[in-house]
User: Fold these one by one.
Assistant:
Number 1:
Amino acid sequence: MTATATAPARRTRGFNIEKWAWLFMRLSGVVLIVLIFGHLFVNLMVGEGIHGVDFGFVAGKYATPFWQWWDVLMLWLALIHGGNGMRTIVNDYVTHEGARKALVWAIGLAAALLIVLGTLVVFTFDPCNGVLESGVMWETCQAVGN
């Protein structure tokens, strides 16, 4: 009785999206931990803590490019990380090819739309937009020249 030897599986060369998605999940997870805990520390522990978080606090943070980029990076990484995780779950559990493709496209479109809208909100945020003369922010907005 002779044993038949099986040839080792051949490795294909080229771009492997699943490998890069796996690597992205690990790296973005580490970066997100730093971004999220930094965000929570500044918002909840520094200054007046949770009692100091109001419209003026957010307006003050978004007046500086550092916090704009911090929040945009956190937003982008969280949405891409979450979308990629949902894509993986859909690929693992949805057996119908058409449904799988539709769901993966829907996840991608939803993530892209939220990224665009969130980025626009952060970079175009103007606390004086629409402030009326009878509003509480009127004097502040007049003082800064808006």
Number 2:
Amino acid sequence: MLELNKYKAVTFDCYGTLINWEEGIITSIKPILQAHNVNLAEEQILENFAEFESELEQGEYITYREVLRGVVQKFGDRFKFHPTNDELNSLANSLQYWQPFPDTVAALKLLKQRYKLVIISNVDNDLFAFSAKHLQVEFDEIITAEQVKSYKPSLNNFRQAIERIGLPQEQILHIAASIYHDIVPAKSLGISTVWVNRRTGQQGSGASLPATAQADLEVPDLQTLLGTGYVS
């Protein structure tokens, strides 16, 4: 049993955990591929995205808007087509329309009554501002890649989050859908973790690179976490 009462802050990954980014990615990328006569299964689109995004987030920091533009270019490079400028920008431009999972908003509103809520996200400030409107709660802290100039799974993102939250890591619970981006680095710093396995029953690791780590708790969604006795 995960005793949520011992935590004072709950930190969240945003995209993939709160916002349905895989649907957003497919909705944006698939028409580009089809326009250039490239037919990939949705799982292949997500796996290529995971590879390209990770490559672009290595090394010297670039904005997430630039990362997403680079992802589209890498699809073109791999599958032998030349994206138009509009196509290069379309993935980043689509992010403002990506929607929360059905259980997200209710869970956030419930947790907000008891805990400090924090976002730790691989995104630009202006892009997260669009998503914040969909999430409908006021977060106590928002830590973006743009602010800390690195991308998860870098420990820098989590260390700066701990510093800004102002609590020992033992009082912080991190909730995320990506083992690669979140569970591995958070656990290495002694932060308790909940893996929200949004891909329960599906093959592969989707839009995140495959990784292995044991979260303190695995649930298929936030409704399960809050509604079936896992939390006391």
Number 3:
Amino acid sequence: MAGMIIREAHFPGRAPVDAYGDGGFRFADMSHRGSILCLPSGIYGWQPADAQALQPSDFDKLFAEAGAVEILLVGMGKELRRLPEALRAALKAAGISADPMSTGAAVRTYNVLLAEDRAVAAAFIAVD
């Protein structure tokens, strides 16, 4: 009997986020429970180790695509929190401007920038 294959959650394309809340997101006629990372290469399930203390390693996929991203929107949950210094420094070194905000504001801003075909990426922490 073959073992179960667990694949990383990934939507291979750019899509606006249609809804958020209840611990997840809806986009491209699909839903995802948990946080997501929206990159030029697609939308990925994303689980930072500690949403309150994001680290550069939480953004390895983003850094791999840094040349295609100018702006990173970070949906920090229900409340705005400052990005940790180490993460801000890593983003600056990669030439990426980061803008932390509440997840709701980040989703709305992401959808506008995506519609304008801007070089935008987003990291959204799920909210209930």
Number 4:
Amino acid sequence: MASTSDKVIISCAVTGSVHTPTMSEYLPLTPDEIAEQAIAAAEAGAAILHLHARDPRDGRPSSDPAVFDQFVPRIRDATDAVINITTGGSTRMTLEERLAYPLQAKPEMCSLNMGSMNFSIHPAARRVSEWKYDWEQAHVEGMEDLIFRNTFRDIKHILKVLGEDCGTRFEFECYDLGHLYNLAHFVDEGLIQGPLFIQSIYGILGGMGPDPENLVTMRSTADRLFGRDGYRFSILGAGRHQMRLLTMGAVMGGNVRVGLEDSLYLGKGQLAKTCAEQVQKIRRILEELSLEIATPDEARATLGLKGRHAVGF
């Protein structure tokens, strides 16, 4: 039997802020839909649930704590999964908006993008001829002229007000090799202590491409910077690259992230109807490779989380 630290942690990012309702009828938009999909993903084997909010009227990204409050406590009551709240929000949100609910909820874990970057899916607008809601086209096409901002000062602020003050630990989202060096800077400054949970991300325009060689480069660089025992590695493959990169990463000793935030599909030309379908698929692949799946409490122990009793919701 594998030790707790050898088991694969499955994260599930339920809805995100990038995809729009027109792109998939199955994308969860309302608090009920987000809660239902998150709970089903946990039942399928996801130890960590990565959560964004959307305006229930039209599905646009929302930072409103009142919207989060309609589904986060419900998920907490129905599962023992680790609840991970975004601090990324969307490229159109201010830092204050992005932190509004995390500072209220004081969750066990939050995501933390390790640098400012171009982040866009604007080419996807060319494949859409008719939009369901008026806001969608401008949202997608407008990404061409936007950046996601997380300066060194922004990151330092998040580490202080959420990490130090609330005891929240982080899913360090690294979209490029330089983000690993940014993370190492904060470790060297004494602002971050291990164990680190590094989410390496491939296939987003503006970040690293989905080439398998990039996964190897990220893994070997993280080994040099932090030591193999100083961090837990996880893999996020965007869109059609999801399952093949996750499988490769798991074979290399990594953890995995699925969910409709990252990919709308289950297979070629087949929309995923739920996040749970993606969890079930990657779980089957991992178990066929004789890899064991971590429970939420095993993920807590591996990542040094404060526990569900210590959150603010």
